[in-house]
Amino acid sequence: MEREGGEALTKILVATSNPGKLREYRLLLADLPIEVVSLTEAGVTETVEETGQTFAENAVLKAKTYARQTGLITLADDSGLEVDALGGQPGVRSSRFAGPGANDRQRIELLLHNLAQVPWERRTARFKAVVALATPDGHVETFEGVCEGFITDVPRGRHGFGYDPVFYLPELGRTMAELPPEVKNQISHRARALQAARPAVARLAASGPTTTR
Fold this sequence. Notes:
By secondary structure, the chain is α+β, with helices and mostly antiparallel strands. It is 30% helix and 24% strand. The protein is globular.
């Protein structure tokens, strides 16, 4: 594929089929000479089971597996919410917190139920993301981003996804879901991890195979 003006683009696989996450990746990497493709667009149907004990282990597992399967440079992340009053839960189980098949609303309801008796000053939490960048030959690099905040007692906001409606940022006076995408993409955990990864993505894109129309 080429950009307008004839610039060749390197195809980069983002290991997700989540439309919200894919949209964030495309916005955050829009100025690089790459074509971002999802698992669905790459024709990948196999799901990599997240068996790691840390965000980094899961991100590396997904990135290396999909890069090997597709022959594409691959970006994968694992991210989640760590709540101090819950001993760091849900952590790596953030997407599975309320059980298989649960949606965002059900996960938020369970989280708020578990924090019902916890006072505001103890509702400290953080979003953490680890992005892994892998090549088909097995080379892998990891990058971390963290965003600190508090858990509200009721959801607020209509942007974002996941736990965004209950993650409050005291310096901005809003939840993550109340932020317009352009603001979230400057301060979110995934944005910070991807910002750290950008030089490596650009380096690999410059040396990787390009796609043409």
